[in-house]
Amino acid sequence: MELLGIVASPRKMGNCELIVKAIAEKLPPPVRLRIVRLAGKEIRPCKACYRCLSGDCPLQDDFGTVLEAIVSADALIVAAPTYLRGPNSSLQRFLDRGLQFWKHVDALDGKPALAVAVAGVRDGEGHALLGVENFLHGMGMNVKGRAVIRAALPGEALLLEEAISSGAALAEALVDPVPRPAASPSCTECGGTYFEFRGGDRVYCLLCGAGGSVRLEDGRVLLRTVPPAHSWRGDASMHGHGEWLREMRERYLRERTRLREAALRYAGGEFI
Fold it and tell me: How far is residue 126's CA from residue 114's CA, in Å, rounded to a whole number?
């Protein structure tokens, strides 16, 4: 297995890096682990120029190198620390350049992956794990395992029994051919466990955008969701979304004069 570990932490030999290596150690050999310290890479902000849809991105930085490593890997482990109840921003900075994923749909779709968020305070992880899962789902990958590792001091992830058990379970999930049922009520479309309640029994999945309903039956919470109207999940959907983006770019080129004239009323202003 060519395994890629993405460490979204600026701390070398911190818990994110250590848990990635510990999970890889538990996988059946042979495994070749390569690691990207994403927080240390130069990933410049997307310019929203859409040039990558018909050519190459004009930004010259480390994005292409990281994407190439992701595409060539057989499986991924992504670990991010919790910063103010969310994941380190290096994940979103990379994901913002994701229009370029559409060129690699066949290589990315369904690639097995693990999502890990590290939090030092119990129940302090907020939406950190959701951010890691979104990073993987945004590329069309199959998240086979997910966990919050609770470890505050650098190295604690290797010493705390709960963290050790979680790492072992993740390693098993990555190579298990049979999908494991979620431990809590989950989206029937993507397996996500983050929802917004929209009145009555209606729910909305924050990971894939599926809508649905929730009910209580025999003391169990039952969720039923339906595919979102606009989705980039799955090979065909991702190809379709890429075509839609290219069509929108062509539409803008046709209508840009009219659009600019409408915007001129609000030109200028006081900026800091």
Answer: 18
Nearest to 5 by CA among 152, 162, 165, 167: 167
Q: Which residue has the higher pLDDT, 236 or 151?
A: 151
Task: Please report which confidence band the pLDDT of residue 235 belongs to, taking 50, 70 and 90 as the band edges.
Answer: low
Q: Which helix (H) or strand (E) holds 116?
A: strand 112-119
State pLDDT tens for residues 115-156. Answer: 999 999 888 999 999 999 999 999 999 999 999 999 999 999
Domains in the chain, CATH or no CATH each: 2-178 (3.40.50.360)
Q: Which H or E run contains 78?
A: strand 75-83
Output the six-digit token pair for 128.
Answer: 């950190």
Q: State the pTM of this model.
A: 0.89
Within 8 A by CB and 6+ apart from 175, the residues are 27, 28
Closest CA to 163 of 110, 219, 104, 119: 119
Asked if 197 and 203 count as a contact pair (C-beta separation under 8 A), the reply is: yes
Could you give the CA distance from residue 63 to residue 59 in angstroms, rounded to a whole number? 9
List, edge to edge, every strand of the sheet that includes 202-205.
Answer: 195-197, 202-205, 211-217, 220-226
Q: How far apart are CA 49 and CA 68, in angstroms?
A: 22
Task: Using DSSP, state whether 100 is helix, strand or coil.
Answer: helix
Category of 133 on φ-ψ map: left (φ > 0), alpha (ψ -120 to 50) or beta: alpha
**φ, ψ (nearest 5 deg) of residue 60:** -105, 100
Q: What percent of the chain has pLDDT over 70?
A: 96
Q: Which residue has the tokens 């993507």?
A: 190
> Quick one: DSSP state of residue 254?
H
